[in-house]
Amino acid sequence: MELLRWDVIVSYLPLYRDAMFLTLRIGWAGIAAAIGLGFVCALIRHYRIPVLQNIVGIYIELFRNTPLLVQLFFLYFGLPKIGLEIPAEPCGVLGLALLGGAYMAETFRSGLEAVEPIQMESALSLGMSRQQAVLHVILPQAVSISVPAFVANVIFLLKETSVFSAISLMDLMFTAKDLIGLYYKTLECLTLLVVFYLIILLPVSALGSILERRLRYAGFGD
Amino acid sequence: MRKNWIKKTSAAVLGLILTGSLLAGCGSGSGTAAQGADEPQAQETEAEAAGTEAADAAENENAGFRTLEEIQASGKITIGVFSDKSPFGYVDENGEYQGYDVYFGNRIAQDLGVELEYVSTEAASRIEYLQTGKVDIILANFTVTPERAEEVDFALPYMNVALGVVSHNDRVITDLSQITADDQVIVISGTTAETYLTKNNPEIKLQKFDTYATAKSAFENGTGVAWANDNTEVIAFAAENEGYTVGIDSLGSADTIAPAVTKGNETLLNWLNEEIVKLGEEKFFHADYEATLVDTYGPEFEETLVVEGGGQAAAPAQN
């Protein structure tokens, strides 16, 4: 007996391809928004901007300490009860952006905090303005320090898309589950699932390690 | 250090790809071989079928399922039911499983004289639970279909079912042709409604949910113009919730609902069939209906829904 039915696998490929595109579409939109959000939140927290830093603090703790599934349920099933209806796909992007934003904020902040105060002092003593110092001295180093954790976050967020089935998005995980329910070809469906996640995530890992090597210019004088 | 690490990773990736393609090669190779010898093999398989089945059963005995004797010896039976599908299988406010299926499940354990453990299943994973031996019986409102019968063994039926479509009162769908290209119909992944619409009305856009509870919430929030499911469920839903009408109460063929066991588990299957016939003498399923379903459906649906003693087992076989 054959272990895997290859004709079955081939016939499922288009469905998995669509699901992969959906995962990527939501994944990248969500992650791009998360990076922007995280960056702003990190700056707010690091430079202790009054009031805003408290709001950001609450946001980060709220979203880092609840599962994405719960957040999606709230956004998709909870908000319509108060009249705010968001379709499934924007809901997925929003959920991922909010969760990712909280993680990214902490990642960037740890990068900012890892830059020695002497860097700022030196930049100021060279006649740079505070703004210039942040832009040209602190941020490049902080970003470079946070690259490994940043890449880990991106991979984590892409994997988190597997809970989107809860809000009826046909992502990879739901496609696999749905096909199993329809045609009962379990092993084929699960094998395809693993393969397609690897297709998405291996390049991200590889890109991450290249990025990490190229951007390693922080920590001068250590 | 770093260079070394990259080397190792690329080696691992390469290895993975190679293994993959090797597997692919093997698979397609044997595939073509089988196809080439199509004709004689087909006959052979048929002749072999009886023999292989017995062999399969023997093989499965350790991994796939537990026989009746093994269940009795272990003193405990595991039954897969729904936990979110009132009034058939649900968990009540005290955390106890309740419903039409559960009422039957309780009796099975009682008559076997063993302890009972319920496992909560989702529609799409019912077959998996049996095939991997994680439960002994599925009693999760499981509609008998030919496709499913290839994967699991169904005992005698204990309920009738067809498909139904419920819609919002302001736009009642009484025929599938009223559903436009912009509309979405809610289904639960892994149900007969999904299979039916996928097969017969592929033009209808389906919005799929993986649990009854999420489908229900989404429908109540106004997602989808209609919800297609077992007619028993949509009737129950419309009866329990204001503002909904069952526009189509019988779609597709009339089917039955039956307990399922792992393919080849004959001892348990035979016991279940005997049990269902025996329970018919005491009108057990009528009592079950009156205990669990009458509040939802009223007495007028009793004869339509209940199958006593596996009574109409001959009907689906004729189809």
Describe this structure in words.
The complex is a heterodimer of chains A (222) and B (319). Chain A is an all-alpha fold and 222 residues long. Chain A is built from eight helices and no strands. The longest helix of chain A is centred in the N-terminal third of the chain and has 41 residues, at 6-46. Chain A has a single domain, classed as MetI-like fold (Orthogonal Bundle). Chain B folds into two domains: 63-158 and 258-318, Periplasmic binding protein-like II (D-Maltodextrin-Binding Protein, domain 2, 3-Layer(aba) Sandwich); 162-255, Periplasmic binding protein-like II (D-Maltodextrin-Binding Protein, domain 2, 3-Layer(aba) Sandwich), CATH 3.40.190. In chain B, a hairpin with a 3-residue loop joins β2 (84-85) and β3. The termini of chain B are far apart. At the A-B interface, α7 and α8 of A face α1, α5, α6, α7 and β10 of B.
Features:
heterodimer; A: mainly alpha; MetI-like fold; flat; B: alpha/beta; D-Maltodextrin-Binding Protein, domain 2; 2 domains; five-stranded mixed β-sheet; globular
Question: What's a concise summary of this model?
Answer:
The complex is a heterodimer of chains A (222) and B (319). Chain A is mostly helical and 222 residues long.
Measured by DSSP, the beta-strand proportion of chain A falls in under 5%
| Overall number of strands of chain A | 0
CATH fold description of the largest domain in chain B: D-Maltodextrin-Binding Protein, domain 2
Q: Which structural class matches the secondary elements of chain B?
A: alpha/beta
What's the helix count of chain B? 14
CATH superfamily of chain A: MetI-like
The helix content of chain A is: over 70%
CATH topology of chain A: MetI-like fold
| Structural class determined from secondary elements of chain A | mainly alpha
Q: So what's the CATH class of chain A?
A: Mainly Alpha
Query: What spatial order of strands do you see in the largest sheet of chain B?
Result: 5-1-6-13-7
Query: What distance lies between the first and last C-alpha atoms of chain B, to the nearest angstrom?
Result: 69 Å
